Amino acid sequence: MTHDSSANDTVLAERRGPVLVLTLNRPDRLNAWNDDLERRYFALLYDAEADQDVRAIVVTGAGRGFCAGADMADLQEASTADDLDAGRPRPRTFPLTVRKPMIAAINGAAVGLGLVEALYCDVRFTVPAAKLGTAFARRGLIAEYGVSWLLPRLIGTGRALDLLLSGRIVQGEEALALGLVNRVVDPGGLLDAAVGYATELAASCSPASMDVIKQQVHRDLDRGFAEALTEADALMLASFRHPDAAEGVAAYVEKRPPAFRPLNPE
């Protein structure tokens, strides 16, 4: 596998109030994913989950790209390795289960694994010229890293198959029309827009509520309505006993910002 000389620089971390900004930082490689970047990224996410002062996370890329996919040197090594389990990068799906809101600020190319990492975030902002694509079929690969589960649920089966089978590139406005991203903003305002959105979540929304809602949405993707409703009723009763419920109502009645409790580490 290829390794950067300074693994701690592969992802930069910056606090903006209650928001942690993580910047994939291999700009000379369009932030292509490798083992060092993965280890650093996941370590920072684990730290963010444990840090009660971090209430939301924004992920972006340095330079011209968000993430151009797996590093080609790694893919070349994997395609010739006898022991594939040892010879290929194995990104985990941990970001999908992070308990705090994750917002992708897609500043440029998000292709293959790079697109998947953006899909692991909860909300996606992008710029008009950003290039998004699956690429797998054009590399002789398959729908990797759970994208065959994620993409149809996000944009529908037909649209997902179009993007997966063709590997074609879509840009900002088409990505928005497909439902692949949530907002398209001017390049100069991308990070500020994503951080502003994350800051609003941090200021106005209960961390406990957002954690439970994220879990509900992902569980309910594979359940019937009756089962989802039964669990929601039980969770609603539990939420009434949480201090954030009383605080949320009081803040609304008193016309003041809420002072919700930080998310307790698990």
From TrEMBL:
<dbReference type="InterPro" id="IPR014748">
    <property type="entry name" value="Enoyl-CoA_hydra_C"/>
</dbReference>
<dbReference type="Pfam" id="PF00378">
    <property type="entry name" value="ECH_1"/>
</dbReference>
<comment type="similarity">
    <text>Belongs to the enoyl-CoA hydratase/isomerase family.</text>
</comment>
<dbReference type="InterPro" id="IPR029045">
    <property type="entry name" value="ClpP/crotonase-like_dom_sf"/>
</dbReference>
<dbReference type="InterPro" id="IPR001753">
    <property type="entry name" value="Enoyl-CoA_hydra/iso"/>
</dbReference>
<protein>
    <submittedName>
        <fullName>Enoyl-CoA hydratase-related protein</fullName>
    </submittedName>
</protein>
